[in-house]
Every structure is written in C-alpha cells, then in structure tokens.
User: Fold dTDP-4-amino-4,6-dideoxygalactose transaminase from Natronocella acetinitrilica.
Amino acid sequence: MIPMVDLTAQYDDIRGEIEKGFSEVLDGAQFILGPNVQAFEQECAEYLGARHAVSCASGTDALHLALAAAGVGPGDEVITSPFTFIATAEAIRYVGATPVFVDIDPQSFNIDLELAARAITPRTRAIMPVHLFGQPVDAEACQALACEHNLLMIEDCAQSFGASWRGKQTGTFGIAGCFSFFPSKNLGGYGDGGLVCTESADIAEELRVLRNHGSRERYHHHVIGYNSRLDELQAVILRAKLKRIDRYNNERRRVARTYSEALAELPGITVPAETAGAHHVYHQYTLLLDGDRARVMEALKQAGSASAIYYPIPLHRQEVFLRDYAGVSLPVAESAAERCLSLPIYPELDPARQQTVIDALRTALN
Ligand SMILES: *Cc1c(COP(=O)(O)O)cnc(C)c1O
Assistant:
C-alpha cells in the first residue's frame, strides 16, 4: 500500500546522526530546555530569517502561546479560515477570543483577504492566516490589511515550514509565526513539538515565560503559565532534519510537479494552483474532483494507494461551532470540503510508486 506519508525512508537517511545525538542526550541526562533545544531555536531563527524563535510542546501550543503573548483575549475577534485543522480555532478559543471565519479563495484554499477586510469590526484584534497545504497566503497583502486596521497578524505556519512569499519565509510577516513539528509535517519530529518565531523581543520573552510555568527565574512565578516545552530528544531529530529541509521540500515539489503534469488533462480534476509569488512546499497535494469522490478513493485503494480528505468538514460546520455559525454559509470552503482529495506525497515517494497512483486515477476517471 502506498501511504499518504512514509516516515521510515527519511529515518534511514538520518539514523546515524540521530543515534549519536540521542546517546549524547542520554549520557548528559538533561532532557528539558537543554543545549539541543537552544541550538535548534537558534538554527530555526537563522533559517527563517527571524530575530527570535521560541520552541514549545506542539503547533497548537505555538498558536495558543502566541495569541496569549500578544495579549489577545476575551472580547477580541480573530479572523481566520474555516478550511483548516481545528487547532487554528481551538487556540483562539483557549485565550477566550472568538474565531471569525471568512471564506477562502478557490484557487489557493487560503483565506480570501477581501472577505477578511469586510469582516473587520471594532472588536477585531487579530488576523490569523493559515498557509494551507504549504502554500503561503499573499503575506504582504495580509500584512498591509493588518497594518491598515491596526490588527495583529499571527501566522499559522503548521503546514508551511520552508515556504516563502516573494523570497521571505512564512512566519516572518506577522507579529508571530507558529510552526508545528508533528511527525507528518514538512519538518516533523518523532513526537509533538512546536515553535513561534517573532521579531519582537517582548513577545519572545513572554513566550519563554509562558511555556515554562510563568517563570523567569526558577521557582519565581510572575503569571500563570503552562508546561509547554520541546524536549532534547525531539530537538536532536529536528536539528538533523532542519539541515535537510530544503532538499525535502524540493523533493515534495518534484512529486507535486509530476502529479500536476500527469493529471491536469484528466476530466473532472482541478490540480492545485500555485499563486505567483508563493513558494509552495506541498505539505499536501490536494486537488479538486468533480463527481463521485468515494468511488475514486475506492479505485485508488484497489490499486494500492491511500488517499485522504483534508478537510471533510469546514470549521463553521463542526459540531463545536454549529451554534455560533448556524445559518452562516461559506460556499467556497463548503464546496472545497466536498470536492477535495489529497494524494500521497513525501520527499521519498519514488517515480514508480507515484506512477501507480497516477495510473489508478487515469483509469478511474477515463
Ligand atoms: C498540525 C496543525 C496544527 C497543530 O499542530 P500540532 O503540532 O498538531 O498541535 C495547527 N494548524 C494547522 C493548520 C495544522 O495543520
């Protein structure tokens, strides 16, 4: 079976480096906020071109802590996309703010910034674009919108490590950029992890306090904080992968190009569009399908390939938000949820296996 993502192939390549790093950590017996975490944060900041990078326990926490550090709270509205993973909206709720979902652009699946502009009210405090599937939103336009209306821009970069908008990394346009190192993400650990990058020394300092029980100095607690730290073993893995992230992302782009060239002419398929100015890193390869999606997925399965639906239900239609969004229609997101289909993509997906996926789709659609 060809899986959506295969993490074993990548491990073979970095096994030696990871085992050596693990052995050093185990011998040194410093597991939390040690030298690997510090080095990883430094290396991330350099890679991203950000002044500060503060790691934490997950991408969800990165979003939560960034909102908290920026002072977003009860009574505030945060404009975001309904076509994303639930964590985007959960984080907004954690700080007591209200997510305001606006519809997406049908080409990029990212938040429609014109609709976002129209959703601004006196209570709007922040805008949280999601660089979905690894494709950056028009980050300069989003920045300009935030600037014009005095909003905080906090980027959900969980799927976009290494993606850039006109040569500048995602995460560096807003007041904070929030990354996830969940294993299947473009830069993934072997467990949970996250990171926030920021240009603001104040926000970086606040993040360091919040992630560590509200403490600047050991056993002195200034605020109620959290236990949200990256551990040394994850940092070892992430440091090894960070060195190779451009290669990994370029391989993803190669796989995506092969899919798009082979599938563009098939009836009933709309292959993903790359926005001019966006360096897309294809966390997912997600196309739109006319017709019977379940039948196509079954055909893929019969041919030995996984496929998946990211995402089947937009957030305004999730049970948890139904009461607040009853009667709200976001037709582009709803249509995308009904028609989207994601194919296997990972750096090590070899041409022969990819051809199996392509052939199965061809047979199913012709
Ligand atoms: C994965 C993901 C998150 C959450 O990251 P975790 O590390 O799993 O907590 C948030 N937003 C988006 C868009 C994601 O894909």
User: Anything to note?
Assistant: The chain has a mean pLDDT of 97.
